[in-house]
Amino acid sequence: MGFRLANVDGRAVLIDGESVHDVAALTDGELGPDPLDVVTHHARLHDLTAGLAKVRPTAQIAEVNLGPPVPNSRSVFGIGINYRGHAAETGAALPEAPLVFAKFPNCIVGPTADIAIASDTTDYEAELVVVIGTTARDVSRSDAWNVVAGLTAGQDVSNRRLQNAGERPQFSLAKSHDTYGPTGPWVVSPDLLPDRDALAIRCEVNGDVRQDDTTANLIFSVADLVAYLSANLTLQPGDLIFTGTPSGVGFPTGNFLKPGDVVRTSIEGIGELVNHCS
Questions:
Q1: pLDDT by residue (tens digit) across 156-166?
Q2: Most-buried pick from 94, 110, 155, 271 (CB within 10 A)?
Q3: What three-state secondary structure class fits 110?
Q4: What is the CA radius of gyration of the chain?
Q5: Range list for CATH 3.90.850.10 in the chain
């Protein structure tokens, strides 16, 4: 049975409908409470979820504040220019291989955290985020999904002025300001999704639809990215891969985020982020 793994006050929880179940309590302390540790044991979460209907919940979703479902990741990867529409709107050539950069883990925040605007060229980028569940090196494309614990939604918020400062792009620094990586609301195991390779993805700013696409249009799929990254380094449980953003970002038109804006990011079968800009 598929699972939804979330973070409440730094503790790993399983979500069953509107109910919240503390993983450490469910397992008498065998697993948890650290969400990153629980990701390592993601295979067990299927069985735990199957028995949740018989267990009294810890809380209801409406009563808790969700943090980033996977905090303290060792590595957070970003992929640039991974939708054809986004390449076209920025005037970039289609990449022959994935364009990889780092988002430093300090930027990762939860699904309702405020985005602290660090520049008047701050941009939104709705993205599907892959959560690695198994130590992986040299994984084939056909086996790639076997090392994925689940998927979540993310915002690769970007400081465009800093990104384009100097003679060489500053992708990693420009995308790693504190709060520039909202994620959540939870990690969803792939077996719960209607089609893990074709999920509707959407971003609204103040109710205005800015991005509306499907992950079927990724240039490099989830399997491609896991295989490519693991061919070059060892992936660890809890590592995150921001897979790229569709067309509709603010950069081509100068339509950037400002304090007071509300960014709503949703992915089919996963859920939504609602982040206020401050």
A1: 999 999 988 87
A2: 155
A3: coil
A4: 18
A5: 76-276
Helices (H), the chain: 23-26, 35-40, 42-50, 84-90, 160-163, 171-174, 222-230
The predicted model scores a pTM of: 0.97
Nearby residues of 124 by Cβ (< 8 Å), 6 or more positions away: 155, 157, 203, 205, 210, 211, 249, 250, 257, 263, 265
Neighbouring CB atoms inside 10 A of 140's CB total 12
pLDDT in tens, 5-38: 999 999 999 999 999 999 999 999 999 999 999 9
pLDDT for the residue 72: 94
**In which residue are the tokens 């809380």 written?**
59
Q: Which CATH superfamily is domain 76-276 in?
A: Fumarylacetoacetase-like, C-terminal domain (3.90.850.10)
Quote the tokens at residue 144: 């790639």
DSSP notation for 135-158: -BSS--GGGGGGGEEEEEEEE--E
For 51, the token pair is 């028995």
Percentage helix, strand, coil for the chain under 3-state DSSP, each rounded to 5: 25, 30, 45
What six digits make up the tokens of 241?
Answer: 């891969």
